[in-house]
## 1
Amino acid sequence: MTDTAWIGAALSSARPQAVGALLRYFRNLDTAEEAFQNACLRALKSWPQNGPPRDPAAWLIMVARNAAIDEVRRNKKRQPLPEDDHAISDLEDTEHELAERLDGSHYRDDILRLLFICCHPELPPTQQIALALRVVSGLTVKQIARAFLVTDAAMEQRITRAKARLADANVPFETPGAVERNERLASVAAMIYLIFNEGYSASGDTAETRKPLCEEAIRLARLLLRLFQSEPEVMGLTALLLLQHARADARFDAEGHLILLEDQDRSRWTKPLINEGLALIDKAMRHRQSGPYQIQAAIAALHSRAERPESTDWRQIDLLYSALEAMQPSPVVTLNRAVAVSKVRGPKAALEMIEPLAPRLLNYFHYFGVRGAFLMQLGRNEEARIAFDRAIALANTSAEAAHIRAHLDRLMRDSQPRDSQLSKK
Amino acid sequence: MLYAILCYHDEDFVGSWSKQQDAAVMEKLGLVQENLSKQGRLGPVARLLPTTAATTLRKENPPVVLDGPYAETKEQLLGFYIVDCDNLDAALDVARDLGNANPGGAYEIRPVGLFAPGGKLK
């Protein structure tokens, strides 16, 4: 690895802790970010010569803080700033001492505060995600804009607006109490899941561009889990992301068309990610404190454990979805459950299950895709065709539309011989 | 004489490598390993999954299971086992049996990500 790549990795891994601590000092996001940027510039100058500091985060926090304090002094007294080299020269002596003071006591709350500010309820989800990727992950505006498929200027504006809203919202900087901490934890988990979905729901032609969002979400989830080692839902969230991301390489064909789970080449699933996800589910289950992320992770795990699609434990998946339904009633969950039901009890039972959902899922692509598939299995081809047509009209991505068209083609192929026989009679 | 070489690093740092960076490091390490292997000097090699996947069993009476990696600095790493288990509970059962045979201290149970059994040592 080159010097710069090495330093880049060190800076990005130190970032959440450093920016979090600086936010505690300055109580202003822009000041904290700017101070961190300045410290990074100094690191790029100093580290290649002096070697990496033992604790990069402590080094960055101290340099950033000193530089900011100098700047305040300079503005006050209009005195010249000491030479850069001079300011850095005695760092190594005090670094150890500082590292001692930084020992875990603030670490957890600093990072949590930083994460929580990004998912402040005042901010709409799109701004939350953009802000977290900018502030916590340290992605450049350009990188984020690329991942969201918008222009740099539009993304810059989105982030600026988010910061302005935060400034107006009087965000509390105090260390949260136990109850509030749990609430914050839930909203941080939801935000990480949103970031992941932004990457995961990409279509084939953009999947590669948006993949970093999935990887970043996993990094944040692991970070959160390290702060809350005994929270089964954080284990569940992390497991869910790992198990889904493990399929990334198998989800699209060469033309960028989505490949359904049952048609994927399972040898292309990433084994270490699956193993990590399964290990986390094992850990979570020991707590006997179920939750939506754990259940979804357990469902993903059952798919991961099946070496062939036929060996999928659909009965267990049906049970897990029914538990999820009870916990978080939603027509989309019922729709997913119906797919499992169709495998266990057949398409007729599954169709009956989703009929009542129609009014609430009138404009939902997947509803008509699933409905069409059940009708097709029941041989009700004309109704299936109508459902598929509706699905294509509602498709969000070209990959979704192409997938349904493949169903339609199959339908046409299958029904043609029968039609021709009918016409002979 | 056999030596164990234990790998320590900041996992945030290693975790922030891109897939390509990670692959490049593994490839370079692979060359060193291959060389040792040809000389009949390489035993098993394991790359562990992140500490977030770890569980710790304190060998008290009764043993206490804790989430997360082993975090004490008062005790030292004295050895390790690689065991094949269906799930975490099975691994904890093995650790409890070992703990009964030798109480005191703790075991960290960490899933293995990559494992190469290694050839026969000369």
Note: Chain A touches chain B through 24 residues (CB under 8 Å).
## 2
Amino acid sequence: MSSTDAPVSTGGDERIAFRGPLQRLLISPEIGALIGALMVWTLFWAVGEQFSTASATALWLDAAAPLGIMAVAVALLMIGGEFDLSSGVMVGSMGIFVGIFAQRFMGDGVSMYLAVPAAFLLAGLIGFLNGTLVVRTGLPSFIVTLATFFVLQGANLVFSKRVVNKVIVENINAERISDFKPFETIFAGRFKQDPPSFADELFLGLVISAAALLVFALLEQSLVRRQAPSAKHLPVMAGGAALAIAGFVLLHSTDGTGANWLCALLGLGGAALAVAGFAGWRYETAALDGAWLVPAARVPLFVGVGLLVAGWVVTRQLDMSQRRVILSIPSHGVKVLIGVLAASAGFAVVLYRGLRSMRSQASGRRPSKSALPRLVLMACLAALVAGSGVITLLQLTTEQGFRAGVFVGTGAGGVFALLVAKGRARSRSRRGQLLLGCVVAAAVVYFGLLVRYDSGSVRFRSGLLGALAIAAGSVLANALVEAYGKKRTSFDRAADTRGRWFGIVGLGLVFAALALRILFSGSNVRTSILWWIIITGVAAFVLARTRWGNWIFAVGGNKDAARAVGVPVDQVKIGLFMMVSLVGCFVGMLTVLRFNSVPAGSGVGKEFEYIIAAVVGGCLLTGGYGSVIGASFGAMIATMPTNGINYARWNGDNRMIFLGVVLFLAVLINQKIRKKAQEAR
Amino acid sequence: MAALLELVNISKFFGNVTALDGISTKVEAGRVTCVLGDNGAGKSTFIKILSGLHEPSEGEYLVDGTPVIFGSPRDARAAGIATVYQDLAMAPLMSVWRNFFLGSEPGNGGWFDTSFAKHTAKEELKKMGIDIRDIDQPVGTLSGGERQSVAIARAVYFGARVLILDEPTSALGVRQSGVVLKYIVKAAERGLGVIFITHNPHHAYPVGDRFLLLNRGKSLGDFAKEEIELDELTRLMAGGAELEALQHELGAR
């Protein structure tokens, strides 16, 4: 059947090219911060041995939580067009307030049930005052809240000196305060506990489901759809899925090294079968026949994998000392040189062959413009495969090295092959697609293998990076190609939507799996991470899906316009100031109940970190634009260096320099991406 | 049938300044009334009275034949009188659909029904003959004419019977102005009364059914289309005798 070959009329607006998921993603304000956060993370992942372990991740996320929560609140206020310089000191003030109140004025046997609500009431009042002053006087919020900042800072000193005769309020704990426990559970409850026995299985299950969904998402968005799904392929798919699950479960429960490979094969076969079944169910078989890798993709992939296998076989014949000798023969510089040579060779070969085939295809008509960047991208990927493959080969002394090499090769090769085949599929035949699914499945299996060793810390980091690389790599590669495809049938659109949902759910599962892993990492993690997630979620929802969100954007974007159409501008602004103060009070509670003491200078200077996190997260300083999710990423960028520098064993004094550079780069990237995306409209 | 909106001898004083003096005109459904005047002629005061921002010091303001006194723009809007200001009351960084429903978001409670909003905004713009490329794009990326059209479509959707357009073509190029004029006619065809304020008689004449000329707060006349030619309109508008004097002066050089 080739009825779908000719695209049906698009029905859309012919003036706009189909906007692929990539572009749609890029115009969202938080994407710059996400990419920045990933880059900073990758940097510390690369230099710090322990940085990406579950427990270290839990630790820096825990440290980032107060900043993240405040950044979300401050981002909302900034989108509404105002600043609050008193937000930092507010955190300290409310801590001191509760501390003094609970200790001094109530004595033993009196409860926090009065102190905590009173703190929130006071914070709300201060916020109301801030907002009212800004709205009524028309003064810049910088000035008004700067005044509040000084007043609060002074009050902190005065009251702590007068009441406890010190510049720090201490001993805010269960011994002194009778009703301390329930509040501690809410604001600073611990997650420190040994992982439950099912945690590993749950993690693995979530990850596998996520990977499957991502593969389906990929297929939905890339292949040619059947007009009517063919149900007879469903059993194949179900059977394959069952086999794959069985393989993975067995893989996870065995200890013998020999059985691992058997189970992995079972999983691999099952996964491939499932993918094939799914493909047969939903897609034109004509698109699948003669499935094999397109020639340009074959050579570097097979050479890379072949070299890996050869290297593995050779190194297996040698004992440890011999390996060490071999390993040290080419010096580091030579290894790098060889790697670079291999990479350039891969680059050159693919570019040459690609150009030649383009020329032969284009005889009689002009080669399409979009083909060239794609080709260069493919060549870069080929360089990556070849280079990393060769370097890995030179370092093969252990099975882990082999596994890592195969993983890199397969993952990069899969993405690469996908690009090539999809490029071809659009222009001429639709071959090679099924195999692509299998390549992805293989990568997933290797990923499973890596996760199998997740108990060790370093293994977690490979697994984590693997998950991110696979998910992000394949989805982005697909999106990139998708963005070039201009003509879409209505049928395709529906499938794209479905594919996107698969992708979203899949990424959600990845997130859930990682969250589970981190919370049960055995580190001393508190509830603040949970509060961070909840508050970010609520704020994002309010901003996107409620009328108040619309008002916040409008109040920051064009106050007069908002007023003209009946938005209660003043109330919105006052509400935002109150919200920031209340969230500040909340974070104050998180801190005081956790550390049991508050210095009088607590929180001073933090307000700039909040603003920085919000700006890095894509909020405009002038208001009217931004994202709270981005602000959360911004908080991560600001916190990661603190922990990362320790793990990298760099001088801790570098932190501020690093922070400055990273912040600048993050904002720069953010701006670049946004500009580029806006141009694409 | 009474006119949708009628002004009888409206005057407005600010202290000892007379901003408007004895202005009368009317707006009928499906008709375009153009208000022409040079800078300082009293056009903005006129709009502010119509849209309920100012109360007239003297004279009667009739809606559907009954005298009204508007305390605020909200009252005027409730009576179906919508004003599209020059700055259009839009936030440039917000998407078309968010702007379209700004201040009147659909949905229960605080919930903002975004899919309904996107769909409806697109439909409403289409009804006005406006084919927006992408409903998600920020208003700031639209051209001036498109932005005007979105503002007009928004006013129409929210139940406007009388549309007051404050210099919609003043900042636009020739082609964009043409686009806006087309939407003005379209709005009138849909049964709205339109008040089109401009200082360009070449924009006013092709679309107008009625012309009110203002000069220094006074009416130079309120004409139906058949009573006046474009040349006469231009001459009156430019200050008539003053322009002739100017031509004389320039010609003498």
Note: The first strand of chain B starts at residue 5 and ends at 14.
